[in-house]
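User: Sequence in, structure out. Go.
Assistant: Echoing your sequence, followed by the structure tokens.
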Amino acid sequence: MGKDTFSEVAGTLLLLGAAGYALRYWRDGRNRSPLWVLIALGMLMLSFDEALSLHERLGRWSDAQAWRWGPVNHNDDVFMLAYVFGAVALVVVYGHELWNQPRAVLLPLLVGVAASAGSIVVDAFAAVAGVAPVAEETLELLGAGLILVALRARYRAPAPAPDLGAAPEHAHGDAASATAAAELDA
């Protein structure tokens, strides 16, 4: 743990809780979409990063190599882009499933992700010493807390109703089985 132990411990615990709810939701069979496992893995990675200061260590190493990565304050902020790209990939692939969540899940999830992204932007570009770290840590904890609230709400909400417009699942769940079953029914 680094210089601000309270926020690191609190952030780590919030992220671990969020990972736990996402994984439980998937494990309990309420939704077998890989989205929930990927969210859980992302939250675990972020919690390990928070607890072990992984991206900061990578940043110090790249600073020692005299690498500069654009207009950011610290090279460690560039490594946070990996998390951002991962989140964007989830939205691209699973956007429909995410947007169909209940409001009690979607609102805190969106605000939590926005606050977390805001913490990265503040840390990367703010030049005001003393104010930037407080704003960054506040946004980081707010984001992690709201993501935990969203995933807890998802776990506690009723399972989503099946999509009635989807083709019925038959013996093997493929189009040929569905066609064969429709012909038998006719």
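User: And one key feature?
Assistant: DSSP finds eight helices and no strands in the chain.
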